């Protein structure tokens, strides 16, 4: 009480005296109240109750298993013919020196293969070539290009990064420069069903965005594959880069060392048990690095090509979620715990209860 | 005196002795400036034997005269001569660190003090080498530049604010005496920055003082000026400063005034000043009472005139303005351990890559020349190879490149995130309304920004008592006079008829009224000249006279009434003077030479012939008073142990014994006691004293020591008058706070300068001690006794532990199960224990005890006790205190908390956090500390995880690129990943997430244990997190990898999928761990994912980048969306399952408390049946 009196005396007397006193509560520093500053914003506080956990696991299972099944079905609907031709297309006498065979420009490398259609294939049927063990994602390789040069004719001399395929011996720039373009795939395929040619449409196999914006309409190949070392296909110097769709496809470097590239589209249906004769020119030298070459004819589904992985993965995840849900339920029933029971707090547990 | 603060602290306050070591003045200015960034009043090493070293230092210093080299010469009113050699700083100040020109180099230099930044710089530089160019130039420098930029902007803003305040400060004006102008000499306004040393400055009432000045004249004829030093040390009371008589006699316009001041070099001791002044050939010594310092304000004095002696950066306030020393938090120290582990992991990954790359190169040696994707031969005729330096070099380059690619493993953004998070946490602590103290109008202050999270791991709290546990608002409670105890029935407050002083037609009344004892009042009024009444009157006369209190009269609305407001530095003195006034001894007026006391209605003038200031060696103060009846009396008051040494025991032994009994009773009630004695001086004695006193007080150096000797000579053979008991009230909520801290598993130790009885009784009243506790008391006066006591104590604790073990047969953490032990030890014993081999034993005893109470400890002993724990355990310590005597303890502890209370700001200045009340400690530790720790610990782990996931993902890809370190993810995305894609949510969560509400945390203090046990950040958690990291990175990498195997997918598209997947996954990971979702959390979390998508889209819309348009293509396929969903679920399932199982079947306390918070109302009935605490004790009788 004495304090109160003292305080009130102080309150009444301040402000007088020498003219300036310490006025009480003058510019109080009390923090202003707001839900934000007091960290009291309305908030949701989720807690993993058994109900929640079981429902989440069940729900995931319910979603994943059907997706897995649908994906598997889609994958099974895809019909795929794969023909591994690189060793078969080497003449018997040359199997010991494949590289020499390939490097000999004089020999005719035409090779004929017969493919059996196992199931009906509806058009469009995509024709891919598949390279194995070809590191299109090798650091030296992916960097060896110049996108500016590809876009516009004015930048033809812009060859930085294109080593070692930058300029010709006399110093004039190569268009398109770089290892990627240099190593353009050059096997060709033509298809016959009986005696009838099956047309392969090679238009529209590349991305439209690439044709329109990445590869210039006024950029023409120059000095390309003129050196002593020929890497792959030559380009028609009279066609602008935006029309060289094989190049455009090739220049989208693959992510993985085994990859397919679109060669063209067959726009007729193939029936089961049809037999397709493929005449191919086995030009591309994959033998020097033990690469494999495959020809692939495939239909597609909404999921893309034939690949069971996604379906299996979804089924596995969904299945394990069901299992976890069941396991959790069992353990929950065997050893239930009341949520938020303070007697479980470590300092409340009786010492003998341990 | 052994109280927490000097009881009788006179003005000017002598620095507390053990803190004192005012170093001998050094000749070398470089050495001096090197010390500037440390607060000099703190001795670096704790010295338990108080004062001995300090004394010798001081003596050594005093032996020297101020030589010309050592001193600065200031010619009064002759600035040009003073500044001839341009050696003195001008008065302009500069607190800004940088100028426009120096900003960039200096700021960068300071920022690169961080080792982490150097690491990133080295990486960025490596990347510039053409062989190693993994990223483009821009991309590689960007993250570092970003972090540097953010910090630089922050620094620049702070510096700009400092510059602005400097400009304002420098632009203020003061009146300076101009030279002989046309109209004679007069004062003219001059801007502060143009003031020079030697100039005469006039300060009007309530004006700030522009520089340190020696007073020459004041409006008061006796030369007194009152200053308020609140800006300097935070003390709001007025202090008296004097102009010397020699200058007062001169004319104010300085006509014919010549002289110079020889003073010591600028130093940071704000309580010390040594100088002398020569006027007209006479040498006058100057001391601290003669100087007024920059930053103070003149009060209650119409004007004052002084001569500038220190200006600008050399003023004491500027020399003292340095920040708190920086500390590093426990969590950060631990974090460095994990950072090292991560570095090891990083190096392992790099080694794996480079070894595999070497193997690959060797296996494919023959193909490298012409294989389309390597082609090291530039042309067939040419032997030179393109960018190939042999397998050895290639491996080496691969190693360096892999370091560059995987650099992100060490999270660069973590450092800046932690700073931002701490800033945010500090913001919320400062803004917390429950940490605001109404009484002192002070908010919580965060002075150290890098130890927020330490607040969540405290195990020991070392608390000061006075001003920390108690309010430091003293109230006179009772007195023992002449062996009679007057603590009986309290009358109501004195009516209007008493305790006032009549001046003409005016009534003067003390501002504070104190309850009086009617019996004592009767005795005083009617006691006549009989011994008893005489003694009582002398007792109160001593209370009214023996002090340094300044009475100020305050007007009231009623013109006939005035209030007397007592201003003094020691709250005890103020309380005593108010008490004397209540009993009719009203101190009315004080000048430098005399005091006027209204003695029971009669105004009497007493000459103050001499005053011996309080010091901590003598622990008493005395005044020599010339009474109106021509007698000369010496009044002494001081601590009992000091006073009984100088009281004549041959007479009145019974009174002495009675007083001792009363003293014991008072202090066991928790009262602060003082003993008062007096002696009448004979003529001869007085003359002897006077000559010695004058000689001593004009000496320049060693004055303090000489004065002490003079005082000790005269303070002897005293008659005892009596003793007083002053109550220092407990602060609000202290017992509850201590109880909460104890439940939280924090040991509270009280270190006080008070007497043992006082300390114990305060211990009871704040529930630190309880009646069922076994007390071990160690009071020893020699080392052998100490050893023996400690051995006994160890035996006792062992026995008690064995007993409780036998009784319970289990070891539990609950305190109720065993007999609690309290250790009470005093400073004398500590002298023999600290820093000797006995420390170890003390440590054993002390840690076995529940409560430790140290009484009569010196400041450095406080620090020594903190060090005792800090050096021997890993436990975090916190020291809390309010006074200068707590500074060393505050700086020693891991976390120092200052109470901004009655005792100035020294403790606050030295502290890491400052607040207004002890009870806020509960909120600070249990709530904010808990939150900060939980958030920060989680944030660090999460940052490690987040970056490691990314690195592992890159690593898996590298295995499929012939170990050539290609990244499918664009370089911009990998650079932006940790600074933009995922940075914001962790910062938001680090600032805003709360595992439990404030209410719950305060209700169950035991939850604090989570931080003490380091539950949220430890090696096990780190390893678990890393295992999870590997799984998640596998999910992110291999699900798309396997799904796109043998497809036409291109690198950029797959890279985009991986980018989005990893960002989504780490954000979902964070989302799963967020406890509290408010709109900000939602916005940042989902916003970040959207921002990432936008960034990826933007990057893929740039035609010159190889990945042009990939994202649009890939987004159009169903597979893409199924993959993202699949990755997220598959990546999260193990973590989610683990979390669900542990939370449900092995719940932590925090988890249960969260459930309680959410479903609490369902279980209310059962909750109330469970006793939350078995700790209870009877309230000890106390007042």
Automatic annotation (TrEMBL), chain A:
Comp. bias intervals (Low complexity): 1-13
Membrane topology type: Multi-pass membrane protein
Subcellular location: Membrane
A Pfam family annotated for this UniProt entry: CDC50
Record keywords, A-Z: Membrane, Transmembrane, Transmembrane helix
Transmembrane segments: 52-74, 312-334
Any one annotated GO CC term: Golgi apparatus
Residue segments, region Disordered: 1-35, 146-169
Organism domain of life: Eukaryota
UniProt family annotation: Belongs to the CDC50/LEM3 family.
Name recorded for this polypeptide: ALA-interacting subunit
Automatic annotation (TrEMBL), chain B:
The entry's keywords: ATP-binding, Magnesium, Membrane, Metal-binding, Nucleotide-binding, Translocase, Transmembrane, Transmembrane helix
Entry EC number(s): 7.6.2.1
Compartment list: Membrane
Segments of skewed composition (Pro residues): 9-26
One record GO biological process: phospholipid translocation
Binding site for ATP: 464-466, 573, 614, 637, 672, 752-754, 856, 862, 885-886
Residue positions binding Mg(2+): 464, 466, 882, 886
GO molecular function, one term: ATPase-coupled intramembrane lipid transporter activity
Region Disordered, annotated ranges: 1-27
TM annotation in the entry: 139-157, 340-361, 391-416, 944-963, 975-992, 1021-1043, 1055-1072, 1084-1105, 1111-1133
Cofactor(s) required for function per UniProt: Mg(2+)
Domain P-type ATPase N-terminal: 74-138
Gene Ontology cellular component list: plasma membrane
InterPro entries for the chain: ATPase_P-typ_cyto_dom_N (IPR023299), ATPase_P-typ_P_site (IPR018303), ATPase_P-typ_TM_dom_sf (IPR023298), ATPase_P-typ_transduc_dom_A_sf (IPR008250), HAD-like_sf (IPR036412), HAD_sf (IPR023214), P-type_ATPase_IV (IPR006539), P-type_ATPase_N (IPR032631)
Residues forming the catalytic site: 464 (4-aspartylphosphate intermediate)
Membrane topology: Multi-pass membrane protein
Major place of residence: membrane
EC class of the enzyme, as a word: translocase
The protein's name: Phospholipid-transporting ATPase
Organism listed in the record: Phoenix dactylifera
Gene behind the chain: LOC103701111
């Amino acid at each position: 009480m004495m304090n109160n009196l003292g305080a009130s005396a102080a309150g009444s007397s301040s402000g007088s005296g020498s003219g300036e006193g310490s006025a009480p509560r003058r510019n109080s520093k009390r923090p202003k109240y707001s839900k934000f500053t007091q960290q009291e914003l309305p908030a949701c506080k989720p807690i993993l109750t058994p109900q929640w956990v079981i429902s989440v696991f069940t729900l995931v299972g319910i979603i994943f298993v059907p997706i897995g099944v649908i994906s598997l079905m889609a994958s099974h609907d895809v019909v795929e013919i794969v023909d591994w031709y690189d060793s078969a297309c080497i003449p018997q006498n040359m199997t010991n020196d494949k590289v020499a065979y390939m490097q000999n420009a004089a020999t005719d490398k035409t090779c004929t293969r017969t493919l059996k259609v196992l199931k009906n294939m509806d058009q469009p049927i995509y024709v891919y070539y598949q390279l194995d063990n070809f590191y299109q994602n090798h650091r030296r390789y992916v960097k060896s290009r110049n996108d500016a040069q590809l876009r516009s004719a004015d930048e033809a001399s812009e060859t930085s990064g294109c080593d070692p395929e930058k300029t010709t011996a006399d110093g004039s720039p190569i268009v398109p420069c770089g290892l990627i373009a240099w190593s353009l795939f050059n096997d060709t395929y033509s298809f016959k069903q009986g005696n009838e040619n099956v047309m392969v449409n090679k238009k529209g196999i590349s991305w439209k965005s690439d044709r329109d914006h990445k590869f210039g309409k006024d950029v023409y190949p120059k000095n390309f594959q003129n050196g002593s070392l020929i890497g792959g296909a030559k380009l028609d110097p009279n066609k602008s880069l935006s029309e060289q769709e094989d190049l455009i496809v090739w220049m989208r470097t693959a992510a993985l060392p085994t990859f397919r590239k679109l060669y063209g589209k067959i726009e007729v249906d193939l029936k089961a048990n049809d037999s397709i004769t493929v005449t191919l020119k086995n030009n591309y030298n994959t033998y020097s690095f033990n690469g494999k070459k495959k020809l692939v004819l495939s239909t597609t589904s909404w999921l893309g090509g034939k690949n069971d992985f996604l379906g299996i993965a979804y089924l596995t995840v969904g299945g394990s979620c069901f299992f976890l849900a069941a396991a959790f339920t069992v353990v929950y029933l065997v050893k239930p715990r009341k949520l938020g029971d303070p007697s479980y707090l470590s300092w409340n547990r009786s010492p003998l209860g341990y | 005196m052994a109280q927490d603060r000097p009881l009788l602290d006179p003005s000017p306050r002598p620095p507390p002795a053990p803190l004192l070591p005012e170093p001998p003045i050094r000749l070398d200015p470089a050495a001096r400036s090197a010390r500037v960034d440390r607060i000099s009043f703190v001795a670096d090493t704790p010295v338990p034997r108080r004062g001995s070293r300090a004394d010798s230092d001081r003596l050594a210093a005093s032996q020297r005269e101020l030589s010309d080299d050592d001193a600065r010469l200031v010619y009064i009113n002759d600035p040009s001569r003073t500044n001839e050699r341009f050696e003195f700083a001008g008065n302009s100040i500069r607190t800004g660190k940088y100028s426009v020109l120096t900003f960039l180099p200096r700021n960068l230099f300071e920022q690169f003090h961080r080792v982490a930044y150097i690491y990133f710089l080295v990486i960025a530089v490596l990347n510039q080498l053409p062989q190693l160019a993994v990223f483009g130039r821009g991309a590689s420098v960007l993250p570092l530049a970003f972090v540097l930029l953010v910090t630089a902007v922050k620094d620049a803003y702070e510096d700009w604010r400092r510059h602005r305040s400097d400009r304002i400060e420098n632009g203020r004006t003061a009146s300076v005496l101009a030279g002989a102008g046309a109209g004679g000499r007069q004062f003219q306004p001059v801007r502060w920055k143009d003031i020079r040393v030697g100039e005469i400055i006039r300060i009007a009432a309530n004006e700030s003082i522009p520089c340190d000045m020696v007073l020459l004249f004041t409006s008061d004829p006796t030369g007194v000026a009152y200053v308020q030093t609140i800006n300097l040390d935070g003390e709001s009371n007025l202090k008296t400063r004097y102009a010397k008589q020699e200058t007062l006699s001169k004319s104010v316009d300085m006509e014919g005034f010549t002289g110079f001041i020889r003073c010591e070099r600028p130093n940071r001791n704000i309580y010390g000043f040594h100088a002398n002044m020569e006027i007209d050939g006479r040498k006058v010594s100057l001391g601290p009472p003669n100087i007024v310092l920059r930053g103070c304000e003149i009060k209650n004095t119409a004007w004052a005139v002084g001569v500038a002696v220190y200006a600008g950066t050399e003023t004491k306030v500027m020399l003292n303005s340095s920040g708190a020393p920086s500390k590093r938090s426990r969590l950060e120290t631990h974090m460095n351990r994990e950072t090292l582990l991560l570095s090891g992991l990083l190096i392992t990954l790099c080694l794996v890559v480079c070894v595999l790359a070497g193997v690959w190169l060797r296996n494919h040696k023959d193909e490298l020349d012409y294989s389309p994707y390597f082609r090291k031969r530039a042309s067939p005729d040419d032997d030179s190879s393109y960018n190939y330096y042999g397998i050895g070099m290639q491996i080496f380059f691969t190693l360096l490149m892999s370091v560059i690619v995987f650099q992100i493993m060490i999270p660069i953004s973590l450092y800046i995130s932690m700073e931002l998070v701490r800033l945010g946490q500090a913001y919320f602590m400062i803004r917390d309304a429950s940490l605001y103290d109404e009484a002192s109008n002070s908010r919580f202050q965060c002075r150290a920004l890098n130890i927020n999270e330490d607040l969540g791991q405290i195990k020991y709290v070392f608390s000061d008592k006075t001003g920390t546990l108690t309010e430091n608002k003293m109230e006179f409670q009772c007195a023992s006079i002449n062996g009679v105890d007057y603590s009986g029935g309290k009358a109501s407050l004195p009516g209007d008829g008493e305790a006032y002083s009549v001046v003409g037609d005016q009534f003067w009344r003390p501002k504070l009224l104190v309850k009086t004892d009617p019996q004592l009042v009767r005795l005083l009024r009617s006691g006549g000249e009989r011994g008893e009444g005489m003694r009582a009157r002398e007792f109160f006369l001593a209370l009214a006279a023996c002090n340094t209190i300044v009475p100020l009269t305050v007007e009231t609305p009623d013109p006939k009434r005035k209030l007397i407001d007592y201003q003094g530095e020691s709250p005890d003195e103020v309380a005593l003077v108010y008490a004397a006034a209540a009993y009719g001894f009203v101190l009315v007026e004080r000048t430098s030479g005399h005091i006027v006391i209204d003695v029971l209605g009669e105004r009497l003038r007493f000459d103050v012939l001499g005053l011996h200031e309080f010091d901590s060696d003598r622990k008493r103060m005395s005044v020599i008073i010339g009474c109106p009846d021509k007698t000369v009396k010496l009044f002494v008051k001081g601590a009992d142990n000091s006073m009984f040494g100088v009281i004549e025991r041959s007479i009145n032994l019974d009174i002495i014994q009675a007083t001792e009994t009363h003293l014991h009773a008072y202090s066991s009630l928790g009262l602060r006691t003082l003993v008062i004695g007096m002696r009448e001086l004979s003529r001869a004695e007085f003359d002897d004293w006077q000559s010695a006193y004058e000689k001593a007080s004009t000496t320049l150096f060693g004055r303090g020591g000489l004065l002490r000797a003079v005082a000790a000579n005269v303070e002897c053979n005293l008659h005892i008058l009596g003793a007083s008991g002053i109550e220092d009230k407990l602060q609000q909520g202290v017992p509850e706070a201590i109880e909460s801290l104890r439940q939280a598993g924090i040991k509270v130790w009280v270190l006080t300068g008070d007497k043992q009885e006082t300390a114990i009784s305060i211990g009871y009243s704040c529930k630190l001690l309880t009646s069922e506790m076994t007390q071990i008391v160690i009071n020893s006066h020699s080392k052998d006794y100490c050893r023996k006591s400690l051995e006994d104590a160890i035996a006792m604790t062992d026995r008690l532990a064995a007993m409780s073990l036998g009784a319970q047969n289990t070891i539990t953490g609950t305190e109720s199960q065993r007999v609690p032990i309290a250790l009470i030890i005093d400073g004398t014993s500590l002298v023999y224990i600290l820093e000797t081999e006995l420390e170890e034993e003390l440590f054993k005893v002390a840690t076995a005890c529940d409560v430790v109470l140290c009484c009569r400890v010196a400041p450095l002993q406080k620090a020594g006790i903190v060090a005792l724990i800090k050096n021997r355990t890993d436990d975090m310590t916190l020291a809390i205190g309010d006074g200068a005597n707590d500074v060393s303890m505050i700086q020693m502890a891991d976390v120092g908390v200052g109470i901004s209370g009655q005792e100035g700001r020294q403790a606050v200045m030295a502290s890491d956090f400052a607040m207004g009340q002890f009870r806020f400690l509960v909120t600070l530790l249990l709530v904010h500390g808990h939150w900060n720790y939980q958030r920060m610990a989680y944030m660090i782990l999460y940052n490690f995880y987040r970056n490691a996931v990314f690195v592992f993902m890159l690593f898996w890809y590298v295995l499929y690129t012939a170990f050539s370190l290609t990244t499918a993810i664009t370089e911009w995305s990998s650079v932006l990943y940790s600074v933009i894609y995922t940075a914001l949510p962790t910062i938001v969560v680090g600032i805003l997430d709360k595992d439990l509400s404030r209410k719950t945390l305060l209700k169950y203090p035991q939850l604090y244990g989570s931080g003490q046990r380091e539950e949220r950040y430890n090696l096990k958690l780190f390893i678990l997190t890393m295992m999870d990291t590997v799984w998640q990175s596998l999910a992110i990498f291999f699900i798309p990898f396997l799904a796109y195997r043998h497809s036409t997918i291109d690198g950029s598209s797959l890279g985009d999928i991986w980018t989005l997947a990893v960002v989504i996954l780490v954000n979902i990971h964070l989302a799963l761990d967020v406890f509290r979702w408010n709109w900000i959390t939602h916005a940042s979390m989902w916003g970040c994912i959207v921002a990432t998508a936008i960034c990826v889209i933007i990057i893929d819309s740039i035609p010159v980048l190889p990945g042009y348009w990939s994202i649009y293509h890939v987004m159009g396929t169903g597979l893409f969306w199924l993959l993202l969903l699949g990755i997220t679920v598959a990546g999260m399932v193990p973590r989610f399952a683990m979390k669900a199982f542990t939370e449900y079947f092995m719940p932590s306390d925090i988890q249960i408390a969260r459930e309680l918070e959410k479903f609490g109302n369902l279980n209310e009935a059962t909750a109330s049946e469970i006793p939350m605490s078995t700790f209870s004790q009877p309230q000890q009788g106390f007042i």
